[in-house]
Specification:
This protein is mostly beta strands. The protein contains one helix and eight strands, in the order αββββββββ. It has a domain of about 80 residues: Immunoglobulin-like, CATH 2.60.40.10. The radius of gyration is 28 Å and the shape is elongated.
């Protein structure tokens, strides 16, 4: 009987001393609001006289969703031309570039830490339009 009581006391003491894996796990580091966290990109394709042109729009936001001003953004395409190739975001976190291409172009928009790929399909300009 004494042995059973002693075993129960030892088990209770050992169980109460167990700290578990949660004690030594480090807390996740907060993400600074000065780092771009969201990159949203889209295209507005021209029609009619604007066929063959597309405006590529980008918005850069921090981890809290606030727009980020002054972030360099690069625009690249595998078809046609894009101008400018690099832009800096405005106070509302946006930057824009003009794509001139017919057919489907892959456009890659990127900051130093984020990138997004778009497929942009535009009509060829009508005959007699540049």
């Amino acid at each position: 009987m004494h042995r059973a009581v002693a075993c129960l006391i030892c088990a209770a003491v050992l169980t109460s001393c167990h700290e578990g894996p949660h004690v030594n796990q480090p807390s996740p580091l907060p993400i600074p609001t000065s780092v771009p966290y969201f990159l949203t990109a889209g295209a507005s394709v021209g029609q009619g006289a604007d066929a063959g042109h597309a405006t590529i729009s980008v918005k850069v936001q921090n981890v809290e969703g606030a727009p980020m001003q002054g972030v360099p953004v690069t625009f690249e395409t595998d078809q046609g031309t894009i101008d400018p190739a690099t832009a800096v975001t405005l106070a509302d976190g946006t930057a824009r570039a003009l794509l001139i291409a017919s057919g489907t172009a892959t456009v890659v928009v990127s900051t130093r830490t984020l990138s997004q790929r778009l497929l942009v399909t535009s009509q060829a300009p009508a005959f007699g339009h540049p």
